[in-house]
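Case study 2.
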Amino acid sequence: MIQCKSISLAQRVNNMSFELAKAQLVHVIGPNGCGKSSLLSVLSGMVPFSGDYQLAGRRVQQATLSELAQIRAYLPQQSGAPFAMTVVHYLNTIIEHLGDLAEVSLNETLEILDQHLHISPLFHKQTSELSGGEWQRVRLVATYLQVWPSLNPNCEVLLLDEPCSALDILHQQAVREINRYLVEQGLLVVVVNHDLNETLQHSDYVLALSNGEIVALGASREVISERLINDLFGVKVERITHNQQCYLLW
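Prediction:
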């Protein structure tokens, strides 16, 4: 699904080589400034980089942005709305780029996403009037529309950079449920995440970074250890198990 060989980006991503398979939820973890967001921007194909990177069998350097948009979706770190428009107008700009869609499928998808992320009360608000959490929910819905299997069956990879920033716990749980559903549909979902207990309990694999380099890659419960967290963050933690669930305490 994702095959990277010696990819680098301006000293922020240093000679990384790894492979990620479909139908997995992969969390990227590490301290501030270690290259997590830079790596996701490389995986999105939105920035120039060196090395070889194949996404769903396509060499990314040779693919157009239009071609990439059909097979992956990318949510960068939260930023303000670029200009004021209603939420409905903003979502329509995303929907228009998906091509001809069956109205029934589109309405069903919007209803499912609204049940989780509760954006219908925001439809007629200006994007400039939204709180940080409201705007993040709108951005998430726009991104999920691009990868929803019934709307875009060709999409194979979803890249999310801190998707739960500014979200309350209800909507954090909603994002977790949607991501797991997409994984069950066969997508590879890659998430930059700072909540280590979330990573330990809910991700399938973890990619740990430090100073632009990979220091660990593997099944989350095998990779996330007291020693790794201490090495990455300089914080002593204790890993415990309660009711068959693992937790980190610090």
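The longest helix spans residues 132-147.
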